[in-house]
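Researcher: Go.
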Amino acid sequence: MSDTAKDLIKRMSEVWPQIDLDGVLNIWILKPGAKSRGRGIHLINRLDAVTEHVSPQHIRDARYVAQKYIG
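Model: Structure:
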């Protein structure tokens, strides 16, 4: 995971104590950018899996939007 992503998650966790709650309601929506038109969307239920999925080892020159689903 890039240092920028790690820093952002650290800053988010300081103000959002429930960021990495586990359970059935912990769903992250991972959407690829650049005109994907709904293709390549992933639903992931663990924050560490989200950060692993967008790590530089798995993708190159791609951008994603990660959103936590609030149910």
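Model: The longest helix spans residues 3-15.
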